[in-house]
Amino acid sequence: MTDRTMIRIDAVSKFYGIYKALDAVSLTIGEGEFFSLLGPSGCGKTTLLRSIAGFETPTSGEIHIDGVPSVMLPPNRRPTNMVFQSYAIFPHLDVAENVAYGLKRLRLSREDEARRVGDALEQVRLAGLGKRQAHELSGGQRQRVALARALVMRPKVLLLDEPLSALDKKLREEMQVELRQLQKAVGITFILVTHDQYEALALSDRIAVMFGGKIAQVATPKEIYQHPRTRKVADFLGGMNFLSGRILGEQAGTVSVDAARFGAVNLGKPPGFTAADGRVTLGIRPERLRLLWDDERAPHELSGRLENRAYFGEVTHLSVGVEGLEAPLSMVETNSYGADDLPIGAEIRLAYDPDAFVLLAEDPPVSRV
Amino acid sequence: MSFLTQRLRFLPWLPAYMAVYFLFLYLPILLLPVFSFNDAATTTFPLTGFTTKWYASLAGNTAMLEAARNSLVVGVCVALLSTVLGICAARAITRYRFRGQKAAAGLIMSPLFLPEIIVAVSLLMIVLAIGLELSLITVILGQTVFCVPYAMSVLVSGFEGFDRSLEEASYDLGETAFGTFRRVTLPVVAPAIVSSLLVTFTISLDEFILAFFLAGTSPTLPLYIWGQLRFPAKLPAVLALGTIMIVLSIVMLTLAETLRRRAERRTRMASAPPQEA
């Protein structure tokens, strides 16, 4: 990954009639970066990806690809290639013919073409399957063919539209690892569209979370998970306990907040923070709460009653009612110590770290017209 | 096994019903070849002996050959015309969303449900009103109207699963619009197109009512057969001709259905994974 900009998106908007699919989106993506567009269905992530590929023409704004203004360029004249959600394997061609499809127009010598196809198939670990017909392939293999067919064109940017969503969980996790290795090996920019937050967290150098045609936050996986800027971002990226708190005082970079039963906590002030009426929303991730067993003590603890639990194999999700809090707290415990056997209604104590709280800004109102 | 299929096994009269049904449907057609090889001018049992002379007599029958040539010309023209129109209609139906789409599809299909004789009479009235001379051309036009719905149904099932991203993938890989049509669209839907050509040709070959009203002085094969029925002595030759036409129709329709299924499989396969908006 270098510091060179590969994609620069300037105030791109896209209207379908009066429906605003993209609302003045601006973004820069670096050369060799693995970048994810994450968001729920209809948030505009696919429209943005298709605008980069050239299948959608933005209503306004500009997209520079490697310094070239590109909104008016058709897909076949952009240095981008795409892996489609349905893979779009040509059904009348075999694997090698699929991969060679785009090379035909380059009029390479027969040897060069065969070598590039062979290399591409090797890269996605499909060597030797060139003669397979499309309908003889498994879902994972089709995905690899789609990858090889795009990479063989040596694009500057590879666009991936929910490439793993059709695969079952086990295969999806394997492909995630491979996709990351592949990106490291070829060293080009990958832009992934996904609605799976774990996929985005596991794969990306940076993530843009989108809601309602706008980008809510762009950050590294760790940053975006640990310091989500708004309530919706926090919620979309995983479990979160939301609390309302009252501002006690504001300093230069921090705010101290009365977090109900958690006492006073000091929090980093997010950029552009304002709290007109002194009320704020705080969040703490379930895994930052820890069950205290027997006589174990912690500097910061709270007691409550187990209201519910759900068994997930390696972990148990606990729901703990605490007096003075509006909603029960969710927490996650590994099953090494018997959290899965706690009786409902048990009085329990839990430990928390006051530094684990995040201050969440209000989400901007969503308007798509 | 579902509740319903289990129940069906205990309906004892079902096999008998099926036997009667198929007998009624196919026995008359089976009699056709039987009598066409029978060495007698009457179509009664017992059979008197095996002969191929009725088939041989067809070869020297210039009126029949002329009618066969007419049918071939009409059939080929109708197949091409209605398939081309059917491609346009099927593509519009499967690929685009527009106001009045359902109504348009319904109107195109309507000749299937209108009484054919009424369609024929109205076409005749229009053809005479605009002063066209009745000829094979008027037959071709009339039968095309009648065949477009068949062509469209066959083609829609071939196009339906055609994943738009196949064409997008082709553009994305550097191909032009024309190149994409030639290298992706056409090969993928080719079986459906061939199937449509075969189906419409077969329908045209057998079609009587429209041809009867619109043909003027140049008969097609069904018209020729109709004319021959007045002469009892010529019946065995007609049966021979009918046998040939049936065999031809069955072969072509089987081929058409095989191709249609292949087209369907191809396009379905290409868009197998579920779509998320």
Describe the structure.
- The complex is a heterodimer of chains A (369) and B (277).
- By secondary structure, chain A is an alpha+beta fold.
- Chain A has two domains: 5-231, Rossmann fold (3-Layer(aba) Sandwich), CATH 3.40.50; 238-360, OB fold (Dihydrolipoamide Acetyltransferase, E2P).
- Chain A contains eight helices and 20 strands.
- A six-stranded mixed sheet of chain A has the order 6-7-8-3-9-10, sandwiched between helices.
- The two termini of chain A are 38 Å apart.
- Chain B has a domain at 65-159 and 188-267: Orthogonal Bundle (MetI-like fold), CATH 1.10.3720.10.
- With 277 residues, chain B is mainly alpha-helical.
- Chain B has helices at residues 3-8, 14-36, 53-59, 62-95, 101-109, 116-129, 136-159, 164-172, 177-206, 209-214, 221-228, 235-270.
- Chain B contains twelve helices and no strands.
- Chain B is globular and about 70 Å long.
- The interface between A and B is medium-sized, with 35 and 29 residues.
Task: Please give the structural blueprint.
The complex is a heterodimer of chains A (369) and B (277).
Chain A: E1 5-16, E2 19-30, E3 34-38, H1 45-53, E4 60-65, E5 68-69, E6 80-83, H2 95-100, H3 110-123, H4 139-151, E7 157-161, H5 169-186, E8 189-194, H6 197-203, E9 206-211, E10 214-219, H7 221-226, H8 231-236, E11 241-250, E12 254-258, E13 264-268, E14 279-284, E15 289-292, E16 301-311, E17 315-321, E18 329-334, E19 347-352, E20 358-360
Parallel strand pairs in A: 3-8, 3-9, 6-7, 7-8
Antiparallel strand pairs in A: 1-2, 1-4, 4-5, 9-10, 11-12, 11-14, 12-13, 14-20, 15-19, 16-17, 16-19, 17-18
Helix pairs in contact in A: 3-4
Chain B: H1 3-8, H2 14-36, H3 53-59, H4 62-95, H5 101-109, H6 116-129, H7 136-159, H8 164-172, H9 177-206, H10 209-214, H11 221-228, H12 235-270
Helix pairs in contact in B: 2-12, 3-12, 4-7, 4-9, 7-9, 7-12, 8-9, 9-12
